[in-house]
Design brief:
The complex is a heterodimer of chains A (394) and B (166). Chain A has 394 residues and is mainly beta. Chain A is 11% helix and 31% strand. In chain A, 44% of the residues are buried. With 166 residues, chain B is mainly α. Chain B has two domains: 87 residues, no CATH class; 68 residues, Winged helix-like DNA-binding domain superfamily/Winged helix DNA-binding domain (Arc Repressor Mutant, subunit A, Orthogonal Bundle), CATH 1.10.10. Chain B is built from nine helices and no strands. The termini of chain B are far apart. Classes of the chains: A mainly beta (394), B mainly alpha (166).
């Protein structure tokens, strides 16, 4: 009997012996009914509060006719309810597996060509969107303003954020914020962070990889790599990969791979660092080339150490005229295109709807769809941020 | 009986076993599943139109259970140095804990354990498991390979089942 057969048989036989009490059907109906009513009340109260304060939310009810019943979409972007929070540009975004989280962002983005002597005003609030229930909820306010330059990564339903030298965790299940311990060495606010298996990786200013065990709330540090890089760190199935330039002019990019016992180095003929792990390969989706012909992006398989260029299928510089960036597994949205690393194909992103904003949007993959939130109405003289939300299922 | 009632009656036993197998915690499994059905009821107009409402409930339940298990592990680590042995186990639970294969599966990291249960108990495809766990099919494949490698090292392919022992 093979191992697979043993597993199937043992699980089926063992679980069949388990005494299963009947579930509480009435309890589920009562709790579900309360949940449904609470969501309606929260949405109504928040909409009223936003309307009274006059903050820059596009009319909550005015666009009702544009809303759709299925945010899954049908090949084009679909307008969803506006979020029940003031408009903002570039909020932090993440997917819990159940809700799309949008936190902080810029409430008063600086218009182009303005001197903006007044610094931007980051938001502390945020909202979560459940695409299955098609409902927004306002989340607990963050302890500090969350600037668009902060960095974030998701660990299950917890959003981990670093900014201004402090680390925070928002637990979507508990709707609660906690401050995390600081790492042994300071990190750059603009440095990359990533996560895998409950651990968060961050680069210190000294170029060391620091590891946060989120459950234990403790930090550790990987052994120093042979070369000190100021670049990006990504967790992969084949180890931790740090990539970045080796020369002061930003060239000579290498990837250093920690396999759990030692570091190795792979030169990669591209300009940019790797920031996305598809589950099988590292992909940097930048199709540009420099004056010297050097590619900006590329693909690296950390298992084989094999680098390859991005498939060259772009026919022009922009696929959809809307700069939406989001990556989940092999699907990467950027440059107006959807790139699928499973077959190396490029497809044009659905065209931007006329009512959607072109600048300052944040996007996240949510169970096979892309959800976009926020942005700036650059056509208006006021350069107002908006609370618009859109969904597209390729 | 409404459609929701019917879904509840049909899906509860199997999904409870699945959630229990993934978490190893009976109370946690019941709470997560009860909460998932409440959410399904709250969104029933949409859930009922889905191709597979059971998949919706399964996904919500497992996501909540795994997240809750992670939070619970933090609280245990910070407040209770050690759990008493056989803590709140029923007779059936205790039987399971003595099963060699079950024990080996229970020792896997949470995500690997979930992949194994969904593959070999729920008979889901890689794509369905990825959708359930909110991850990539490539991740499911790698997690399954890692899980089988660990189980093979622990159990071997030729070792007999507990029930086959003389």
């Amino acid at each position: 009997m093979t191992l697979e057969d043993r597993l199937a048989r043992s699980l089926h036989e063992g679980l069949a012996r388990l005494d299963v009490p009947p579930g509480d059907l009435d309890g589920a109906r009562r709790a579900g009914g309360r949940l449904r009513r609470r969501r309606r009340v929260v949405a109504a109260v928040v909409a009223a509060a936003v309307a009274v304060t006059g903050l820059g939310v596009l009319a909550w009810d005015r666009e009702a006719d544009d809303r759709v019943t299925d945010p899954a979409g049908s090949g084009s972007w679909q307008r969803m309810d506006d979020a029940p929070v003031p408009g903002r540009a570039m909020p932090l975004a993440g997917w819990t597996g159940e809700e799309a989280l949008f936190v902080g962002g810029d409430l008063e983005p600086c218009p182009p060509a303005a001197d903006c002597v007044v610094p931007s005003v980051p938001a502390r609030d945020g909202a979560a969107y459940d695409p299955d229930a098609q409902e927004w909820r306002v989340i607990a306010e963050a302890p500090v303003p969350m600037g668009y330059w902060f960095r974030t990564t998701m660990v299950d339903d917890t959003m981990v954020i670093v900014g201004d030298g402090r680390w925070w965790a928002y637990d979507a299940g508990d709707d609660a914020w906690t401050r995390l311990p600081a790492p042994p060495a300071p990190t750059e606010d603009t440095g990359s962070i990533s996560s895998a298996d409950g651990r968060v990786l961050a680069m210190s200013r000294r170029g060391r990889v620091q590891v946060l065990d989120l459950a234990a709330r403790t930090w550790s540090e990987l052994p120093a790599a042979p070369r000190r890089l100021v670049g990006a760190v990504v967790a992969t199935d084949d180890g931790v990969v740090v990539s970045g330039p080796t020369r002061g002019d930003g060239t000579g990019v290498v990837a250093q791979i920690w396999d759990g016992s030692s570091w190795s180095e792979v030169p990669v003929p591209q300009r940019n660092s790797f920031r996305h792990w598809t589950g099988e390969r590292l992909v940097e989706l930048d199709p540009q080339r420099g004056a010297d012909g050097e590619r900006a992006g590329g693909i690296l398989d950390p298992a084989t150490r094999e680098w390859s260029p991005l498939p060259d299928r772009l026919t022009d510089s922009a696929g959809g005229g809307w700069s939406v960036n989001a990556a989940e597994g092999p699907l990467i949205l950027g440059w107006g295109y959807l790139y699928d690393d499973r077959d190396g194909s490029w497809a044009r992103q659905a065209p931007r709807p006329e009512a959607a904003q072109t600048e300052g949007v944040s996007a996240v993959w949510a169970d096979g769809r892309v959800i976009v939130f926020g942005g700036v109405d650059s056509s208006a003289q006021s350069y107002e941020p908006v609370s618009q939300a859109w969904a597209w299922r390729p | 009986m409404t459609d929701f009632d019917e879904l509840f009656a049909v899906a509860w036993p199997r999904l409870l076993r699945t959630t229990y197998a993934v978490t190893g915690d009976r109370q946690l499994a019941e709470d997560a599943l009860q909460s998932a059905f409440a959410k399904a009821y709250a969104a029933w107009p949409r859930v009922s139109r889905a191709d597979d409402p059971v998949a919706y409930v399964r996904r919500i339940a497992l996501h909540a259970a795994i997240a809750q298990q992670r939070r619970a592990s933090v609280r245990r680590e910070t407040t209770i140095p050690a759990l008493p042995e056989d803590h709140a186990r029923s007779g059936e639970d205790a039987l399971l804990q003595r099963d060699e294969v079950w024990t080996a599966v229970a020792s896997l990291p949470p995500r690997q354990r979930a992949v194994v249960v969904l593959r070999y108990y729920e008979d889901l495809s890689e794509r369905e498991i990825a959708e359930t766990l909110g991850c990539r099919p490539g991740t499911v494949k790698s997690q399954a390979a890692a899980a089988l490698s660990s189980l093979r090292a622990r159990l071997g392919d030729a070792a007999p089942l507990t029930g086959d022992r003389p």
